[in-house]
Amino acid sequence: MNDDNRHSLSEQRRLVQRILADSIPAGREIDECRQVLAHHCDETEAFQALFTLLRGALADPFFNIDDTQLVVPILKALARGDLKAGDLL
Predict the structure, then answer these.
(1) The pTM is what?
(2) How far apart are CA 74 and CA 16, in angstroms?
(3) CA–CA separation, 81 and 43 (whole Å)
(4) From CA 81, how far away is CA 24, in angstroms rounded?
(5) Residues 9, 72 contacting (CB under 8 angstroms)
(6) DSSP secondary structure string, 4-48?
(7) Which is nearest to 76 in space by CA: 20, 25, 18, 2?
(8) Interhelix angle for 9-21 vs 43-59, to 10°?
(9) How far is it, in rounded angstroms, from Cα 87 to Cα 12?
(10) Which pLDDT does position 47 carry in this prediction?
């Protein structure tokens, strides 16, 4: 198992659900991503919204540093196609 896959899918899902439910990260674009992900959308829309939301989490200075370390491998796996947005939602 490599570093990018060290966290189980269920842990990754829990993290994504916490980010979706939390107010951090914040911002208009991030709120729009949360709205897209709250409704049924196709995989392309879900990927774009989730990727933007997770990148926003990394950029937000109030986002928990421990969670930041968990977001990076998720973003890498999404970018490589190892994970789909639907796997995490």
Answers:
(1) 0.86
(2) 9
(3) 12
(4) 26
(5) no
(6) GG-S-HHHHHHHHHHHHHSS-S-SHHHHHHHHHHHS---HHHHHH
(7) 2
(8) 80
(9) 9
(10) 96
What are the tokens at 71? Answer: 């977001």
Distance CA 8, CA 30 (A): 25
Could you tell me the two tokens for 28?
């208009």
Residue with tokens 């107010």: 23
Question: pLDDT digit of tens for each residue in the chain (89 aa)?
Answer: 455 455 589 999 999 999 999 888 989 999 999 999 998 789 999 999 999 999 999 999 999 999 999 999 999 999 999 999 999 99
Query: Tokens standing for 15?
Result: 């993290």
- The structure tokens listed for 52 are 């933007």
3-state secondary structure of 1: coil
